[in-house]
Amino acid sequence: MKEMSRKNQYFTDSVIRRMTRIALANNAINLSQGYPDFDPPKAITDRLAEISAIGPHQYPITMGAPNFRRALAKKCGHFMGREIDPETEEVVTIGSTEAMVDTIFALTNPGDKIVMFSPYFENYYAQTLMAGCEPVFVPLVPPQYNFDPNVLEDALRMPETKALILCNPSNPSGKVFTMQELTIIADLCKKYDVFVITDEPYEHIVYEGHKHIYMNSLPGMWERTVSLSSLSKTYSITGWRLGYAIAPEPLMKRVKQYHDFNAVGAPAPLMEAAVVGLEMPDSYYKEFGDHYAHMKKIFTDGLKDIGIPFTDPQGTYFILADIGPFMKKGQTDTEFCEELIRKVGVACVPGSSFFREDVRNIVRIHFAKKDETLYDALNRLADIKKKMC
Ligand SMILES: Cc1ncc(COP(=O)(O)O)c(C=O)c1O
Fold first, then answer.
1. Which one of 199, 200, 227 would you pick to mutate in the ligand 1 pocket, going by the greatest count of ligand atoms within 8 A of its CB?
2. Annotation: CATH topology of 7-40+283-388
3. N or C terminus of the chain: which is more exposed, having fewer CB within 10 Å?
4. Full DSSP string of 259-327
């Protein structure tokens, strides 16, 4: 047989999703892959029941059902503070995951460099390589996860640098970029003529004292930004696989072309039912944020009581915890996580799958779970020292 593609030689399967499989096989509480164990809003699932009887069940309009796009433009326009044209400035995708693939293909050529902050969401690395591009990493330094503007400038200055991926609020660090940081990033991207691809699925999960600011709302940034997001987290429907890209028409035209051939369209009945979510009033997002603050408090109070050091997230539902005190000599973080699943019954993700730097004592744990699941996980973790050391 002829040689298969070589592009995959620098990435494995997703470690996050692998941890889910190991967790399921061992009956562990799965705090690795980030998805809730509570139900989506009832109004959305009720609408899905209606739609199952009346349709649509056939191919959707490729760029997204018109009523979905109208509702999306209204909702996003409201939060982004600008008018969005549902015909020319949006596309509905199979999660933010497909939107990222479409966008990278639309903006880059093989050999281009794509800058991303590290720790990074692991999809970006594989997606960059799949497009024949080269990832360039700018460290977010623990425990504050700040970056050095000079290091960022060095990365953006390279002539091959085409785009910067900005995950905000950031998975896995929980960082919410401030206006001052966004301004530094924006100014450098304008200076070196670099596109920005934002990935913002946690835009509504931001904790007290922090504020999510959309990069495309900064002066001169709308023109060079493709904003990606998702319904997965905001409406607790990660399995529905609904996401989108928003960008000015000249960029969007290209993104749409890739969507057309990568996906044909997003799931028609699910788009139809999810319109109810997009039309929720502001109070929905307030209650949603309050619920996450409640889960975060349960979980972080518990970790403090047990004595597991961690960085308090500013947004998202992820925590980076320091497992250094519980690791055996010579043990890798992946070995630690696998042993934790077997001995303690809790699954998390080894930090090495997010960090480019040599950081081997950190794991990512998520807390998008019912109160009882969080208490159960904390009870199991209470014995971590005895069981792991
Ligand atoms: C930062 C980030 N981007 C994208 C995704 C994938 O989102 P979607 O379900 O919309 O494909 C996730 C899911 O965990 C994520 O954390």
1. 199
2. Aspartate Aminotransferase, domain 1 (3.90.1150)
3. N
4. HHHHHS-S-HHHHHHHHHHHT--HHHHHHHHHHHHHHHHHHHHHHHHHT--EEPPSBSSEEEEE-GGGP
**Which amino acid residue places its CA nearest to atom 16 of ligand 1?**
171
Q: Whose CA is nearest to atom 14 of ligand 1?
A: 34
Q: Which CATH number fits domain 60-282: 3.90.1150.10, 3.40.50.10540, 3.30.70.270, 3.40.640.10?
A: 3.40.640.10
Say what the pLDDT of residue 144 is: 87
Contact 7, 129 (CB under 8 A): yes
Helix orientation angle between 95-107 and 249-263, rounded to the nearest 10 degrees: 120
**Tell me: the pLDDT tens digits for 83-125?**
999 999 999 999 999 999 999 999 999 999 999 999 999 999 9
Nearest-CA neighbor of 230 among 213, 244, 216?
Answer: 244
Q: Measured in angstroms, how far is the CA atom of residue 1 from the centroid of ligand 1?
A: 36
Q: Which residues contact 240 (CB under 8 A, 6 or more apart)?
A: 231, 232, 267, 270, 274
Strand partners, 362: 322
The stretches in the chain having pLDDT less than 50 are none
199 lines ligand 1 (CB under 6 A): yes
pLDDT of residue 32: 93
* C-beta of 214 in contact with ligand 1 (< 6 A): no
Domain residue ranges in the chain: 7-40+283-388, 60-282
232 lines ligand 1 (CB under 6 A): yes
The pLDDT assigned to 13 comes to: 80
In three-state secondary structure terms, 34 is: coil
* 3 state SS of 4: coil
Pocket test for ligand 1, best of 16, 117, 121 (most atoms within 8 A of CB): 121
Q: How far is the CA of 20 from the centre of ligand 1 (A)?
A: 15
For residue 238, which atom of ligand 1 is closest to its CA?
A: 9
Nearest ligand 1 atom to alpha carbon 16: 14
CA 231 to ligand 1: nearest atom: 10
pLDDT value for 269: 98
Atom of ligand 1 nearest to the CA of 167: 1
Distance CA 365, CA 347 (A): 8
